[in-house]
Structures are given as structure tokens and as C-alpha cells.
Amino acid sequence: MLVENVIVHSHRLLKGGYRLLTLKSKRIAALVQPGQFVHLRVPPSADAVLRRPFSVFRAQAGRLAILYKSVGKGTQAMESLRAGDEVNILGPLGNGFPNVRKNSLPVLVAGGYGMAALYLVAQRARVKGIVFVGGARADDILCADDFRRLGWDVRVATEDGSAGKKGLVTQILDAWLNKDLRGRTPEFFACGPNGLLKAICKRAGLGAWEGWVSMDRHMGCGLGACLACVQKVRRQDAAGEATWDWVRICTEGPVLACRDIIWED
Fold first, then answer.
1. pLDDT digits (tens, 9 = 90+) for 201-236
2. Measured at the alpha carbon of residue 107, what is the angle toward residues 236 and 142, in degrees to the nearest 5?
3. FRET label pair with 261: which of 80, 127, 188, 234, CA 20 to 30 Å apart?
């Protein structure tokens, strides 16, 4: 983990109020693995003490990008950032997604800007797979063309039918699993709201398939000290008996294996 003062390269408003912030990073960008995040100190105008965590969308030597939407004082203050401004970030943080297993078909499932956390998975995978993305409306479907340019098959669902199939993303996923799986072994990589992640893990369990989800929690320090972002998981004790424990999303996560997560209503 490094602390770095980075320079804003560009800051673009996208559809639906989403924004793409690209930063010049000499040190952190080159170290980012798929699914990791950075903790950004928001501009002083936010009057905010805590940093904000953001999944890394793109990363290469010298540059990294994040996608975000204004949902509070911190992200609203970020709207004022312009090319040339300096920002302080911590990163790369957390445990990301593993490499796609040999002989499996990578299946990425995202809700809204959960797509951002999955782009590096697609970019660095040794094989092309399929992407399922869902949102409330067309404006919530982001980055689809970026995945298509990588050669991935992208399927879209929106609740109002304004893009792709009308309905939930799990509906088009289920239709594919029931009809077009054709004996292949899917391996799930997902990011989005908790309900979606739970649904993906349920399907992975029923099929005895591997699944990995990037979990979202409110974070304080981002370094594992404050214990504000815990998740209950399955464990075994020294005698091999089933038990449970807490893990920190900011350090042991944000990516967890579906088989380990204990979902609570």
C-alpha cells in the first residue's frame, strides 16, 4: 500500500450523472490488480474527514481511472476537480479477483457501475467470456462498449426496458444458463448491490461452480483498523469443525469467494 499525490488528467461527465475521473499516477497505477480499490481524500470543500473508497476501473503504468456518481457531500465536492488539480490517494487496497481458472468460462455480472470493478478482470483474462449487466434504465448501463472492444459478449437488461431486455439481469443470466451453457463450466465474477451478489452466489452454489463477488461496505479507515466494514464468513476450527468469523471488507475483501459468505437477512 502506498500514499501518493496524483494529478487529475481528465474529468468527464457521462450519462446519468456518472463521472469518469482519470488520474496520473507514477506509483500506484502500475501495482493495481483486478478488483482492488483506492482510498481518495476528497477536496477540502466537502468538509469531510474520511476518505472515499473507489474501485479502480482502468489501470496502466502512469494512469488510473475511477467511475463514480455523486451521492453525498464527498462525491459532490469531487465534481469540482479539474485537469491539473492534485489529489491524494492510498492504494492499491484490498484483495482483488483471482485469475480465471483453467478450463472455466468467465461470466461477469454487474449492476450499474459495478462494471467498473470488473473491467480489469476482462482485460487481463486469458480467455474471453460473457458479461451480464443490469440497471434501472439505459443511463445506468456503463462501459458496455469498453467490454465489447475487448472481445467479450455483452448482454444487457434494464428494468424499464430502455436498453437490452426488459427485466432483471438475473433473468437474462438464468435464460443463458438454462439454454446456452452447453456443458461449459462457468466461473462467476460479480459486483453490484448486495441482492445481486447474493443471487449470484446462490446460483454458483446450486451449480457447484466457483463464484467471486466484490462486496460494498461503508469504510472508515480503509486499512482494517476501524472494523466498520465487516462481513460474516464460514471457517473451520482446529478440529475441522464448521464455525464462522468476521472478515474486514477493506483488507480481507472486497472480493470474497461465494462459498465462504454467510448471507444474513
1. 999 999 999 999 999 888 888 888 888 899 999 998
2. 115
3. 127
